Amino acid sequence: MKLKLVVVVSMLLFGSNIVLGQANWTTDYETSMAKAKLDKKPVLLLFTGSDWCPPCKRLHRAIFDSKDFEEFSKDNLILIKADFPKRKKLPSKQRIHNEKLARQYNVRGFPTTLILDLDGKVINKRVGYSGISPAEYIERIKEVAKSIK
Q1: For a designed S-S bond to 49, which of 24, 35, 40, 110 qualifies (C-beta 3.0 to 4.6 A apart)?
Q2: Residues 6 or more apart in contact with residue 86 via CB below 8 angstroms
Q3: C-alpha distances in angstroms, 4 versus 10, 12, 17, 18?
Q4: How far apart, in Å, do the first and last CA atoms of the chain sit?
Q5: Could you tell me which of 137, 146, 126 has the C-alpha nearest to residue 70?
Q6: Cα separation of 81 and 61, whole Å?
Q7: Domains of the chain
Q8: Distances (CA, A) of 121 to 33, 71, 104, 118, 148
Q9: pLDDT tens-digit readout, 63-96
Q10: Please, are residues 82 and 47 in contact by the beta-carbon 8 Å criterion?
Q11: What is the pTM assigned to this prediction?
């Protein structure tokens, strides 16, 4: 019985592509969109160059790693991250998946954040990071997300 529990928990933690220790970012677009529909939550889709892009690093430190954003996103958003690192190597399947998403959403710069409705339609797009606070960032998301519910 204990072994079954360990196996199930391991599958949930490692099979879902969740980045632990931060807000609940996933890398699986299809599963996340299905969850968004089920939970009736908007999606924040982030395109980032996590290990080389200075504005991406600032956005992560200032907003996404903040306690305020983590608490807000837990109950209000589905988070998807499409990373385009230069120094670390992504698994080939993930790299191809991220490139497909970038083409699908016509991403031309980093960071790009999209707020998607339950059908994957873009309702807001931002490129770059303007230096706003977590509270301001959250308020902007709340304002945009009103059209979804």
Answers
A1: 110
A2: 49, 51, 52
A3: 10, 12, 20, 21
A4: 42
A5: 137
A6: 15
A7: 17-145 (3.40.30.10)
A8: 11, 25, 11, 7, 11
A9: 999 999 999 999 999 999 999 999 999 999 999 9
A10: yes
A11: 0.84
Is 60 exceeded by the pLDDT of residue 62?
yes
Euclidean distance between CA atoms 2 and 109, whole angstroms: 47
> With helix as H, strand as E and coil as C, how does the chain read?
CHHHHHHHHHHHHHHCCCCCCCCCEECCHHHHHHHHHHHCCCEEEEEECCCCCHHHHHHHHHHHCCHHHHHHHHHHCEEEEEECCCCCCCCHHHHHHHHHHHHHCCCCCCCEEEEECCCCCEEEEEECCCCCCHHHHHHHHHHHHCCCC
**1 residue type, one letter:** M
Q: Between helices 67-76 and 134-145, what is the axis angle to 10°?
A: 20
Dist. CA 127–CA 25, nearest whole Å: 19
